[in-house]
Design goal:
The structure is a homotetramer. Helix content of chain A is 38%, strand content 25%. The mean pLDDT of chain A is 93. The two termini of chain A are 31 Å apart. Chains A and C meet through loops of A and loops of C.
Chain lengths: 257, 257, 257, 257
C-alpha cells in the first residue's frame, strides 16, 4: 500500500523532509505547498536534484477545497508555520489526515487542531524525531521506576540558538521537573542538537542521550508517524501516543516469551 | 511491614550489600552466612563499623534445616557462590524466598534453582543493579521499535578485568546481536564499570549509558528485588520480569492520562 | 595581506573547502582544478551558490607551467588525489607553496613531495582539521607525562566506513600503541566522525574527544595551515609541526606570566 | 633515592593519600600529624590495615621545632586545614619542603605561604590530581591556539555538593571566562567528580574530560608533586608550573625528532 502525501513548507527542514519522502517506496509525494512560488522552479523534485519533474509546488494561497478535491491526498505533513492550522478543518472535512511538526502554536491555533481532530486523525509534535520521542517516553518510565533518583537535563546546541531548547522544556514537563532549575543549556560552535537526561542514584548513573546529526531526522520521524496515523481513528494524537502504543505491544510480546 | 533477611556471602560485594541492608528501615538483616568465621568477629554489624552487635555471622556449613527453623527469615539474598544453590530446595521447603545475585551458575546449579522454584519464589540475576536491568529492558524495546538501527555495545572496566563483561554479553543476547562482533571492550585504569548501548540511524544516534560508581549499587538492586519478590507466587523470576511488570503498570497509567 | 590560492579537487570535501576559502576575507580563491569540466558550469562560485562568476574551473590536464605563469598563486591547496603530486615540482619551481590534504599517498608519490620540498614549503596532512591535530599533539604530550597510564582509542564513524580510521591509526602510531589492540571501531548510522583517546589511571580517567560535525572542518584547517605556511622556508612540514611551534610559543608566554 | 615525608591531615582524603604514600617504594612516610590522637591507635599503618606499626600519629599541637629536629623529613604533604600554614615558616627554616593540597586559604594564610617560600620550595594546589592539572594546562593552550572557539565548562558532582566546583572556577579563570556564565553545574547521585571543557568551532567540537574515580587520585598527584619539588629551589610553585615545565621538556624532544 502506498500513502499519498501533500507537504506544507519547503524551508531548510521542509526540503530535507521532502527528500526523505521521495526516497520512501511506500510514499508518494503529490505536491508541496510553499508561501511563494518561483516561476522557473515548478517542481520540488528539481529543487531536490532529480531530473524528472514531479511533486509540483503550489502557492499556499491556492490550497483550498477545490485544490484538494482535484489533488487528493491521504495525509498532509505540515512543516510550515502555525498559521497553516486554519486549513486543518478543510483538510479534515475532505477525510485527509494530518501530521503536524510545527514547533510552536498559539492558543488560537491549538484550537484549530482540536476542532479539526473531531473529523480526522491529527498527530502533532514539536519535535517529531524518533530519538527525542523515545527519550521522552523512556525517561518518563525510568523516572516512575526510580522516583528517588536525581534528574538533570543537558541540552547542547549551536551558538546562535538563544532560547532554551523547547524539547528540553518538554522533557522537563514530562518528568515534572522545574524547568529553570534542571535544564542546563550549552551553546558552542555548530552542534546540531544534543539532549541528555541524567538519572543519578547514590552508586550509579544512567544517561539517555539523543544526538541529531542532520535535520533530515525530522523526515524519518514524520514518515513513521504518517504510516502509523493512516490506521487511526479521528482524534488528536501526540507522537508519544504512538510510542506508548508500540511499547505496550512489544512489552506484551516480551513478557510472554 | 518489615522483611527479615538472611544474607549469604560477605566478600567485597557482599559486605557492601550488607551495609545497604542495614541502612534500610523496612529490612531486618537477621544473620550473615560466611564460609569461615573469625573467632573474634561474631557480628556483621561490627565489621560494618557499628558499635552494637547484631546480624551474627554463621558458618556456611551450619546453615541447615534446623538453623533455618530456629533463625527464620522471609527471604535469602545470595551473594556467595554457585555451590550455595544446593541449599535452595531446603530454603524453599521452609517457605523462604530467594534473591540470587550469583554471576555464573553451572548447568547443575541452574537445575537447583529451577527445582526449588516449584516450592518458592526465586529471582536470579547476574547483575542485579537497577541501572543495568533498566538498560536491558529499555534497549530491547528500542530495538524492536527501530529494528533497522545499527546497534553497538561499549563496555569499559578496570584494566585487570580480562574477560568480556558478562553483562555486555547478556545485553547482546537480549538484542539478538552476535556478541563477538558488536561488543567493544575498553580496559583502562580503575573504571568500576560502564556499559553503553549505541543505536545509530542515518541522521541521529541514541545512547543508553549506565555507569557504576560503587559496588554498593548491587545492594540497592537486591533490596528492590526483595521487596518485589515477597509478594510473588512460586516460580523462577529474572530481574527483567520485575522491570517489565513495572513498565506495563506505569505505561498503562501514562496512556490513560 | 591577502593570499592567492589555487584549489585542486572539487569533490564532496573539496567543494566544502572552496566554500570556506571564499568566505575568508584574507584569501582569494583564484581557480579550481578539477578532473572534468562541465561546459555549462564554468565557475566554482556558481556551484557554490554565488551569483557572480569567479574562481573559474580548470581541467586538471591543463594545469602546467604556462597555466601557472599566467594564473599565478601564492599557494596550492590540494584536496584531489595522490597522483596530483606529479605537479608539485613544477609548482615548487614557480615559487608556489603547497598544502596537501591527501589522505593516502603511495611511496612514489611521497617521493614527489619530498623532492619538491627542496624548492618550496610543503605541508602534508591526511586529516587537516584543527581538532584532530590538537588531539595528536595533546595526547602525545599527555602520554609522555603519565607514561604508566593505560591508553585506548575509540573511533566512531558512519556504518559504511569499512576500514579502520586512518586518523585513529595515526594517533596510535603517535602514542606508540599497537594499532590492532588499542583501536576500538564503532560503526553505526550516519556519524560523521568521532575520535576519543582515553587515558586510564588507577583513580581517574582523562578523555580527549574530537567530533566532526561537517567536512567543512577540513576547510578551516586548510586555511590555518595556509596562513602559517606562507611564512615558512622550504621544507616538508606536517600539520603537527605548526601545532608544536604554536604550543611552544604559547607555553613560553604562559610560564613567564 | 628515597624521600622521607611527614603528612598533615588524616581525614577522608588524608587517609587515602597516606595509603598511596605507603605503597610507593621511593617514599618513606615518617609520621602523620592529626588534630586529635586516639590513645588505642598509635600508628597510621594500623588505621590503614597493616599489621606492623609504623608512621606514628602525632598531635598537631606537638609539631614544633623540637619535634621536626628529632623527626626530620625532606618534605611535608599537607592535607589538613588552612591554619596549618602557620607552621610553614618553621618547616622552611629547617630546610623542609612543602606540598600543600589545601583547597582554600584565607589571605592571611596565603601570606604565610608566600613568606615561607623565601626559605624553601613550596608547591600549593587546591586540586592536586594529575588529571585536573593537565586539563588546566591543555585547555589553556588550546584556547590560545583557537581563540575564536566557544568554550563551556561542565562539572558534575554528588548531590550534596552545594557550591560551584572550585576547580571549575579555577579552569574558568585560566581561560578568562566569566565564571557565572560558562560553568554548568550538574548535581546528581553519588558522582565523585567530573570536569569537562568543551571547545566549539563551527564544524567540530573538542572535549577534554577528567573523571575522578576515587579521592586516592589526590595521593597520586601529591606524590608526583613531591618527587618534582625535592629538586627545586626556594620559591612558591603551582602544580601547573610542573606541568608547563614538563610540557616544554617533552615538546622540545618531540620537535627535534
Amino acid at each position: 500500500m502506498s500513502i499519498s502525501i501533500g507537504l506544507l513548507g519547503f524551508g531548510k527542514t521542509g526540503s530535507l523532509v521532502a527528500q526523505e519522502l521521495v526516497k520512501d517506496s511506500e510514499i508518494q509525494l503529490k505536491w508541496v505547498g510553499r508561501r511563494v512560488i518561483q516561476p522557473n522552479l515548478k517542481f520540488a523534485s528539481h529543487a531536490l536534484g532529480h531530473y524528472e519533474g514531479f511533486a509540483p509546488f503550489v502557492a499556499a494561497s491556492e490550497i483550498d477545497e477545490n485544490f484538494i478535491k482535484s489533488n487528493p491526498v491521504d495525509l498532509i505533513i505540515d512543516f510550515s508555520v502555525g498559521a497553516s492550522s486554519k486549513l486543518y478543518q478543510m483538510f479534515a472535512n475532505q477525510g485527509v489526515k494530518i501530521v503536524s511538526a510545527i514547533s510552536k502554536y498559539s492558543d488560537a491555533e491549538l484550537l484549530n487542531l482540536s476542532k479539526a481532530s473531531a473529523s480526522s486523525a491529527i498527530l502533532s509534535s514539536p519535535n517529531i524525531t524518533l530519538g527525542i520521542n523515545w527519550l521522552l517516553v523512556a525517561s518518563k518510565l525510568l523516572k516512575q521506576m526510580i522516583p528517588h533518583a536525581d534528574v538533570e537535563i543537558v541540552e547542547e546546541h549551536f551558538r546562535d540558538k538563544k532560547e532554551i531548547s523547547g524539547t528540553a522544556i518538554k522533557i522537563a514537563e514530562h518528568l515534572n521537573l522545574e524547568n529553570n532549575k534542571h535544564i542546563n543549556s550549552i551553546r558552542v560552535g555548530g552542534i546540531v542538537g544534543k539532549h541528555e537526561v541524567i538519572f543519578g542514584l547514590p552508586f550509579q548513573t544512567i544517561r539517555l542521550t539523543h544526538e541529531s546529526i542532520s535535520l533530515s531526522a525530522f523526515g524519518t520521524g514524520a514518515i513513521v508517524a504518517a504510516k502509523w496515523l493512516v490506521h487511526k481513528d479521528n482524534g488528536l494524537y501526540r507522537m508519544e501516543s504512538m510510542f506508548y502504543e508500540k511499547f505496550i505491544q512489544h512489552i506484551n510480546t516480551l513478557v510472554t516469551q
